[in-house]
Amino acid sequence: MPANGQEGPMLRLRRSVLRAVARRGATPEEMELMHKLAKLTDQERRRLINDFIDEAFEGIEVGPEFLAKMRAAMPELPDDPTPEQTEAWVELAELVQDPAFRAGVRKAAEYQARDIAASADTDPAANRALVDLVIARAGAALASGIDPAAGFARPVLDELAGAFAEFFRRTDDAEFRAWLLDRMENGNDPRYERYWQLIARINGWPVQAELGPAFGWLTEALRAT
After folding, report:
1. Any idea of the CA torsion for 27, 30, 31, 36, to the nearest 10 degrees?
2. DSSP 208
């Protein structure tokens, strides 16, 4: 222990890792990995995230604002992280190195690029309004226990499908709904939302409400019709 009676950063980090290990019930191998990942420097953490961004989005026209947002949101693990922050960083580091996750995010980015090429409404405010509408309508239907395959779901589905058709400047017909279903089933990786939740947890930012359940309800409603 230092002469001043205070723990150094490495000892505090080790204690945080041990608390996180105890919470997870990790094996000795997992503990070793957690400690290794937790000891990475800020520069090494940034390199890990930037490598993921480079591989997932290289050569895809997703827009400079999108990439700027991705590169600006770097995990900033403090010198004295909580067990929750340590766990979040370890999970994030494992996630961005997962080839399946990288492929899923790249696939979603390719869908986004096709949306731009098809002249979809790319105004961030319009996109946010559409997401908010799904959360409000599909989220309320889910909370009310409405089966997405039931007749009671139809008004909600019609409203949301119509909003998506307007967003993509298309007609809300059977062909469009089949296209929208394919986009929701194959153009989104639910772990991407988890990525942002982990970034927020590490950096002490507010964790946004989950989008997955509401969008999952809408996907099931589309599939049922």
Report:
1. 170
2. P
Give whole-number Cα distances, 38 to 24, 88, 125, in Å. Answer: 15, 10, 37
DSSP 209: P
Tokens of 69: 């947002």
Instruction: Identify the pLDDT of residue 135.
Output: 95
Q: What tens digit of pLDDT does each residue of 54-78 get?
A: 999 999 988 788 889 999 999 998 8
In the chain, where does DSSP find H-type helix? Answer: 9-24, 28-38, 42-57, 64-72, 83-96, 99-117, 124-143, 154-167, 174-186, 190-203, 212-224
| Residue that has been written with the tokens 């986004």 in this structure | 112
Q: Please give the angle made by the CA atoms of 222, 162 and 117, to the nearest 5 degrees.
A: 90
Residues in the chain, total:
225
Between 3-7, 81-85, 112-116, 170-174, the lowest mean confidence (pLDDT) is in: 3-7
